Amino acid sequence: MTFKKVISALLLLAMCVGILSSCAADTSPAVLTLDKYKITANMYNYWASTSKANFLSADRTMTDCPELWASQYAEGITLGQYCDSLIQNDLKKTLVCLKLFDEEKLKLSDETVKTIDEGIAMYLSEYSNGNKNEFNAALAKYGANMDILRNIYIAEAKREMLYNHLFGEDGKMALTDGAKEEYFQTRYCHMQIIYINDKSASVTDEDGKAVMNADGTPATRALTEAEAKKKKETIEAVKSGLAAGEKFEDLYTKYSEMKKYENGYYYSVDASYVSTLFNKMAAETSKIEVGATTLMEEESGTYIIKRLENTEGDWKNEKFADFFHDFESIASLAAFAQYIEPYMSQITVNTEKIGAYSIDAVVPNYSF
């Protein structure tokens, strides 16, 4: 880029920062209200759109269609309903945070506000070359304009600052090692899994190597009748073996198609994993006693799970490191959620308006 172009870009960015406050105010009705604090319909639309994009990006095999959101997530609940409940619950937490932010007498630094304004200005510059009408038209697909986007970013910054103030590394309520161990023992499930893929088979080339799709995911094909029959027989062999008193570990060694973690898996009932399958595993395993088993039939195959005992300190044991990358963050966020929980029931929900922004109805926001 030439010096002249750099100067032009900087001038345009400065102009953009100067016009951020010139958008129309958010006059949409409140959908979530707590005292004087509110989440408007337009703000909710934006957050739902962004959450939808994040969800779809987590699994590139999923296609945004009515059938996806109507599919069963758990007994009596569709995937769409599950996602909607997550979004609404998270925005209720944001609303509580806005109230507590003021009660704690916190204030965003000038630098934080400046960073937010410069970020939006950069979007304006790069997306529409400074044309705010064009930029606002793009944001309108997600219920926003520049002014609403700024309010959203401010709200998110306040929530983050409140969290760090209370439960961050140097927060006044930061968790001790004892509190982390207690959280691990009560909110993590240790399990071993016998996995049988009775839904599909990998596509391989003439050299036996896996064929990949254009999006980088492994190509699969339907099972032949003979393959499907063999898979069913394998599942029945595991079930009958357990019923006859055979050791789970022996059946795992003999039949499981997934043996990466011979010491088992750890999943939290509180975490939001990239794959909702892990959330379901944690939820189902939490319902059974140590030593008991449960079976999950999923689109990716059949999972026969045995609950194992949580061993003290496993959250800092190197052999389980793959399951505890974000452990301290998850534990602290759970404590934070528990701290603000008493305020959640005080929130008024406009159920008539909020239904218009269900995950199956909003446009996914991959851009802003």
Which descriptors apply to this entry?
368 residues; alpha+beta; three-stranded antiparallel sheet
Write up what this structure looks like.
- The protein has about 375 residues and is of the alpha+beta class.
- Helices cover about 50% and strands about 15% of the residues.
- The chain has 13 helices and 11 strands.
- It has helices at about 5-20, 40-60, 65-70, 80-105, 110-130, 130-140, 145-165, 175-185, 225-245, 250-255, 275-285, 325-345, 350-355, and strands at about 30-35, 35-40, 70-75, 75-80, 190-195, 200, 220, 265-270, 295-300, 300-310, 350.
- The strands form 4 sheets. Strands 8-5-10-9 form a 4-stranded antiparallel β-sheet.
- The chain is globular and about 65 Å long.
- The model is unreliable at about 1-20 (pLDDT under 50).
The number of distinct helices, counting runs of at least 4 residues, comes to 13
Structural category: alpha+beta
Q: State the separation between the terminal residues, measured CA to CA.
A: 25 Å
Shape: globular
Rg on CA atoms, Å: 25 Å
> For the largest beta sheet, what order do the strands appear in spatially?
8-5-10-9
Query: Which range best describes the helical content: under 10%, 10-25%, 25-40%, 40-55%, 55-70% or over 70%?
Result: 40-55%
Largest sheet: 4 strands, antiparallel
Low-confidence stretches: 1-22
Count of strand segments:
11
Q: What's the rounded overall pLDDT mean?
A: 91
The string of secondary-structure elements, in order, is HEEHHEEHHHHHEEEHHEHEEHEH
Q: What portion of residues belong to β-strands? A: 5-15%
